[in-house]
Amino acid sequence: MRKSGTENLVTAIKSPRHAPSKDHPEQFEIFPDYGSTINKRHMVAAAVVTVPLLFGVAGLAIRYAAVASTLAEPGFESYARALCRWDCHWYLDISERGYERFPIPNQSNVGRWGFFPFYPMLVAVIRAIFPFATILVATITSIACSYAACLVAWPLLEKNMRAYVLYCAFLLSGPFSFHYTTFLSEPLFVLLTSIVFLALKRSSYPVAGVSSALLSATRLVGVLVVFATVIQMFQQHRERGGSPLSFPRWVLGRSDQLVAIFISPAGLFAYILFLYVTVGDGFAFLHVQRAFGRVAGNPLLFLWDGLSAFPKTGWLPTAPQWSALAAIVGLALSVVLVARKQYGAGVFCAICILVPLITNLASMVRYVIGLAPLIMLMAVLLSASKLTWLAALVLFLVACYFMTVAWIGGYLALV
Amino acid sequence: MLWSDTLNPHGRAISLGAYALAAVLAVSELAILALALHPNVHADYRAYYIDRTTTCLNRDAIGSYSLGQTVSFRSDGAKRVAGMKVCGWSGPAADGTHSLGETSRLRLQIPPLRDGLKATLQMAAVIRPPQMTQRVIISVHGVSVHKVTLSGKQPITVSFVIPHAAFSDASTFEMTFDYLDGIPPSQAASDIYKRSIKLVSFRLDAI
C-alpha cells in the first residue's frame, strides 16, 4: 500500500533528535510544515470522531421531536419503543425468546426463522451484561453500530471530509436514520459490510473472511459478499500480471485466501445447521417466506407493477412506486460502482437488490439504503460541489423529521 | 500466505494449519448442505412450506360443539368459532369469516353417533368481476360430501347430508372447504391470500 506523506512524516519524527523543537527555531524554518501538519492530523482525527457524534445527537433530537407527540411518557425508553416497528418486533422476540420449533405456538404459520440470528444474539449478550429493557439495549447498540460504521467509512471514502459528513448525516440524522438506530439488522449489516470492504481494500483477507461470516449470520444476502472477496482477489491477481486462467491455481496457492473464501458463508451454514436441529429444515428461513406471502416472480414485472401503481389522489408517489424507484436507483448506483472500477462492491449491491426483487418489492427501500457502498457512493457524488453538498445536508436533516413521522405512521414504503 | 513463501518451519506450520482449516470448513459446509437438502419434518410442514401443495397449514385446533346449535361466524360469534378454525380463515368480520387461500378447515369435537349428520351452512361468495361465482367442494375427513356454486353477494343457505361412513372412524369431525375459483388480491400475490367465500353460520344436526 502506498504510504501517504503524513505517514512518512510520522516516521521521520519518531526519534527525539529529529523532532522539531521550540528551543531551536531554525528547525521550524527547515521543517516549516511539521507542526502544522501534525496539528492538522489531530484536527482531522478529532473531526472524524466528532462529526458522527454530533449527527448522532442531532438525529436523536430530531427523531425524538418527531415521535414526542405519540409518547405516553417522556424518556428514552418510550422513544425507543415508539420507533420499534414492523420487523423490529421480530428481532425483539428472537432476542428475548429465541426461535420456535414446529408446530409454532399460538397456531401461527409465521415462524421467526426468516430473521437471521446474529444481531438479536449480540443484543442478548449485551443485555446479559447490562440488564436493561431489550429495546433500550438494542437501540443503543444500533446507534453504536451506526457510529462505528461511520468511522470505518472514513478510509473507504478516501478521507473525503465532505462526503464523510454527508454519509454520517445520512446514517445518523438522515431521512432513514430510524432504520439505522432501532432494532433492525441494518446498523450491524452496514457496519460489517463496511469492515469487509475496508479489509478487502487493505487486502486483509482473514479479517474480510471473518467479517463476512458474521455478515452471513446477520442477513441472508450477507453471504453474497463472498463474491466481492473473490473479485478483489481476482483484481489483485491481475494487477500482479496473472492471467485469468491461472487465477484458481493462484488462489489455491494462498492458504489465507482459501480460508477467507470458505469462512465467509460460515454464519449462514451455522444457522442452517441450527434450523435443521431445531425445526428439521435447514432452509426454514427460505421456506417460511411462504407464510409472509412472498412468491418468486419476474423482477421486471414487479418493477413495472410498482411503477404503474399511480396514486388515486394527490401527486405523491405510492408506496409501490417508491419501492420500485429505490430498486432502480440502487441498481443504477451499482452500475456506477462498476464503472468506477469498484467491481466487488457493485456486484455485491446489485445481487443484494436482485435477490429480494425476485419475490416482490416489499421492504425494497430498506434493503437499498442498507447497502453501505451505495450510500457511500451517493455521499461522494453529492459532495462533488459545495452547493449540492449543502443542499443534501439540509435535506437530510429536514427529511429526518418527516420520514420519522411517516415511519411511526406505518408508511408501507419504509417497512 | 503464499505456500512457496513459507520457507521457515513456523510459517509453514501456519500455512498448513490454514489449509487444514479451509478443508474442515469446506467439508463441514458440504455436510450441512447435504443435511439441509433432506429435511426431516412433519408432513403438515412439508405440505405447506416445502411442497406448497396446500395453503392451509394443519394445526391442532379442535372446537367444542353441541349438535343442533347454530354457530355464528360473524363478529358476534368470534369466541365460539375461535377453536373450530384450523386454517384458511380470516376474521370473523361483520359479514362473516372470510376464507383465505385455496382451502379452509374446521375441526370439532362431537359425540359418537350411529347415523349421519345434516349440515346447514350459510355462505356468501366473494365476487370481483369477471369472477362472479365461487365453486366450493366440501369434504369430511377427505370424503367429498357436497359441491356448491355460490353467486351473488347475499349469503345463501346450503344444506346437505354427511354419511356416517365419512366420519365414523375419526375421533373428531373435520370439514374441509376447497375453492376452485379463489380471487388473488393482485396478479403477483401469493395463493395464500386468495379469497373465495364468507362463512356466516354453521350447524350440524343428527339424522
Shape of chain B: elongated
Protein chains sharing the most extensive interface: A-B, 37 and 43 residues
The major beta sheet of chain A can be summarized as:
none
Assigned CATH class of the largest domain in chain B: Mainly Beta
Instruction: Please tell me the total number of domains of chain B.
Output: 2
> What is the β-strand count of chain A?
0
Q: What's the alpha carbon Rg of chain A, rounded to whole Å?
A: 23 Å
Q: State the distance separating the first and last CA atoms of chain B.
A: 84 Å
Present the secondary structure layout.
The complex is a heterodimer of chains A (415) and B (207).
Chain A: H1 5-12, H2 25-30, H3 34-67, H4 76-83, H5 87-97, H6 118-129, H7 134-156, H8 161-173, H9 177-181, H10 186-201, H11 205-216, H12 225-239, H13 247-252, H14 255-263, H15 266-278, H16 284-287, H17 299-307, H18 319-339, H19 343-357, H20 364-369, H21 372-382, H22 386-408
Chain B: H1 9-36, H2 43-50, E1 63-64, E2 70-72, H3 78-82, E3 85-87, E4 89-93, E5 96-99, E6 103-109, E7 117-125, E8 133-140, E9 143-151, E10 156-162, E11 173-179, E12 197-206
Parallel strand pairs in B: 1-6
Antiparallel strand pairs in B: 2-12, 3-6, 4-5, 5-12, 6-11, 7-10, 7-12, 8-9, 8-11
Q: Mind explaining what this structure looks like?
A:
The complex is a heterodimer of chains A (415) and B (207). Chain A has 415 residues and is mainly α. Chain A has helices at 5-12, 25-30, 34-67, 76-83, 87-97, 118-129, 134-156, 161-173, 177-181, 186-201, 205-216, 225-239, 247-252, 255-263, 266-278, 284-287, 299-307, 319-339, 343-357, 364-369, 372-382, 386-408. In chain A, helix 7 runs parallel beside helix 10 and helix 18 runs antiparallel to helix 19 (343-357). The longest helix of chain A is centred in the N-terminal third of the chain and has 34 residues, at 34-67. With 207 residues, chain B is α+β, with helices and mostly antiparallel strands. Chain B folds into 2 domains: 3-36; 60-206, Sandwich (Jelly Rolls), CATH 2.60.120.260. Chain B has helices spanning 9-36, 43-50, 78-82, and strands at 63-64, 70-72, 85-87, 89-93, 96-99, 103-109, 117-125, 133-140, 143-151, 156-162, 173-179, 197-206. In chain B, a hairpin with a 2-residue loop joins strand 8 and strand 9 (143-151). Chain B starts with 8 loop residues before the first helix and ends with a strand. Classes of the chains: A mainly alpha (415), B alpha+beta (207). The interface between A and B is large, with 37 and 43 residues.
